[in-house]
Amino acid sequence: MCKMISCLVSRSGKVYAFDGVHSHAEIAEKAGISEDSCLKYEFRIKQKLLVQDFNSDSAPFKAKQSHDNAAQAFFDACAGTPELLISFVERGNWDEPELVCLLKASARKVFNKTCASARKVYDETYAPARKVYDETYASALKVLDETCASARKVFDETYASARKVHNETCASARKVFDETYASALKVLDVTCASAWKVHNETRDSAQKVFNKTCASARKVYDETRPSARKVFNKTCASARKVFDETYDSAWKVYDETCASAWKVHIETRAFVWVSLYSKPENRA
Q: Is the dihedral of CA 107, 113, 116, 120 positive or negative?
């Protein structure tokens, strides 16, 4: 695990480090270089000790005294004196386990008490923010479900109505066809050959009317169904959009609130430590 003061040193002796970034991997990513192309160094503040965080057998190149000197110069600039260390912390560098142990027991007690109060403020800010987020999410989800259910009901009713009209139209057309056919058959029985001709013509005509009526009813049914489906999809898409926007907005507020509260919490802890460590009598 990287210490609060860490850096990478290139073959040419260039030091890579950034305020607030303690991981060698993150330093490499931010610098746009490969972590495995540099030597890794750490500095243990309490012992004031430079540490090579690499195995000489697997290092990307042989470490020279110039590389150690470059790392040491960087660490001296960060924590060579209490004043430099305070300045380093004030630039956004914080590692509580490493820094608190630099305080005397009495100062550490003051630090812990003050920070406990700051933590309480953070927790009290986080809890209502989480509650607002959860309630907003639940409400948005309920609206989405109700809107989709309502749209589904309209679609089902429209579909059922169109189906009913289709079935009734076809049944009516069939009835007309059957009655016409029966009448024609009756005329056939009475008038024979002449009636047969009339029968065939009437049957063909009735069949044509029947087919045309059913086709027309089917067309109305087919046109109604896509339209109803389109309305259903559009309604659900609109409801989903409202839900997503509400969710994103709630999450953003929640995330920003927690991030702001946590930033204040960390800054408070750093401020308390600096206030205590600035006084020589509080240093261990």
A: negative
CATH number for the domain including 122? 1.10.287
The closest alpha carbon to 249, from 241, 238, 260, 237, belongs to: 241
Domain boundary, last residue among 84, 102, 120: 102
From CA 133, how far away is CA 139, in angstroms rounded?
A: 10
Q: Let me know whether 137 and 204 are in one domain.
A: yes
Cα torsion for 85, 89, 95, 97, to the nearest 10°?
50
Q: What is the pLDDT of residues 34-77, one digit of tens each?
A: 999 999 999 988 888 889 888 877 899 999 999 999 999 999 99
pTM: 0.54
Do 63 and 122 reside in the same domain of the chain?
no
In tens, the pLDDT along 149-187 reads 888 998 888 888 888 988 888 888 888 888 888 887 787
**Same domain? 98 vs 112:** no
Give the burial class of 259: count Cβ atoms within 10 A of its Cβ; 0-12 exposed, 13-18 middle, 19 or more buried. exposed
Domain interval for residue 262: 107-284
- The alpha helices in 91-104, defined as continuous H runs, are 96-100
